Automatic annotation (TrEMBL):
<dbReference type="GO" id="GO:0006071">
    <property type="term" value="P:glycerol metabolic process"/>
</dbReference>
<keyword id="KW-0319">Glycerol metabolism</keyword>
<dbReference type="InterPro" id="IPR051578">
    <property type="entry name" value="GDPD"/>
</dbReference>
<comment type="similarity">
    <text>Belongs to the glycerophosphoryl diester phosphodiesterase family.</text>
</comment>
<dbReference type="GO" id="GO:0008889">
    <property type="term" value="F:glycerophosphodiester phosphodiesterase activity"/>
</dbReference>
<keyword id="KW-0378">Hydrolase</keyword>
<dbReference type="GO" id="GO:0046475">
    <property type="term" value="P:glycerophospholipid catabolic process"/>
</dbReference>
<protein>
    <recommendedName>
        <fullName>glycerophosphodiester phosphodiesterase</fullName>
        <ecNumber>3.1.4.46</ecNumber>
    </recommendedName>
</protein>
<dbReference type="InterPro" id="IPR030395">
    <property type="entry name" value="GP_PDE_dom"/>
</dbReference>
<dbReference type="InterPro" id="IPR017946">
    <property type="entry name" value="PLC-like_Pdiesterase_TIM-brl"/>
</dbReference>
<dbReference type="Pfam" id="PF03009">
    <property type="entry name" value="GDPD"/>
</dbReference>
<feature type="domain" description="GP-PDE">
    <location>
        <begin position="45"/>
        <end position="333"/>
    </location>
</feature>
Amino acid sequence: MAQLKAARVADVPMALDVVAAAAPAILAEVDAGVGRGGGGQKKRFTVIGHRGKGMNALASPDRRMQEVKENSLRSFNDAARFPVDYVEFDVQVTKDGCPIIFHDNFIFTEEDGKISDKRVTDLQLKDFLLYGPQHEQGKCGKPLLRKMKDGRIVNWNVQSDDPLCTLQEAFEKVNPRLGFNVELKFDDYLEYQEEELTHILQAILKVVFDYAKDRSIIFSSFQPDAAQLMRKLQSTYPVYFLTNGGTEIYTDVRRNSLEEAIKLCLASGMQGIVSEARGIFRHPAAVPKIKEANLSLLTYGTLNNVPEAVYMQHLMGVNGVIVDLVQEITEAVSELITVPEPDTNTDNLSSEAAKDAATPNFSQREISFLLRLIPELVQ
């Protein structure tokens, strides 16, 4: 069996307990997948850079997670140096109708010793761009801070900083071979009316149709109504539904399981699902159901920074992974699966080739060994 390279991520071992606990069910699905005609034939497996070359985990002891500012032009173009097909990023729309790239719902700064915050979508574009590094030489922007999940507010310090950017700038200045996975970002704690969602999505679509040219695009969203509406508003680009795969529970039941995600996609004509990787490992039987529904399947999450976990998903039938450690994962999986060289004619994930995941011809004994080995390999 080919040798796998482990990536060091401090909080992964706990998540890998999920893999160990579900090993018998996963093994059954992998074995069934081989029986369904994998036969050793290799097809395209997609690697997508999360927020470019990786998200910023500012509290992580792993310096790779603070290497370059997430969701920035620099991060996108850094990711393009590796054989990724797409970069994923978060798009919101400012108060004056400009689509910008930023993950968090609130943006923080410090002025006169006081920390203040603004909802990103309440800002005019000119005010949003005042935060962080500036394009104009010698001009200083407002200090950019970030609120952590534990409530702490810290300086947004990275080794390679870059100004905030708009969606239009990304189309104009990012390597044209890269596809864009555009996440339509909405606040989980707000209710949106259809009129408001339509206004937001149309602002995004205007930029996409004006500047995308031949670039491959995938839309995705955790917001079920936004995902459905994007599918209604256009048919040029595929729309994927983002789900935690049952790892978190919401008041909207459409978000609470892979089964609900399948139903939503089929009812609205969406082309794929993006699940938290743990959801796939906990419910491996959902994978063939997704494939039978003729849907593409991508995953995201901390587990995707571990080559062994990525490889197991590849065997299970997952079409691609969204990763933070772009260099490490592309290097690791290139030894095992077909990772395309940089190509200006990247196929869209909605194609038939992308919907059939590769299934290398490994023996059941080797797969079983790999499943047992995963939790032990990650330090």
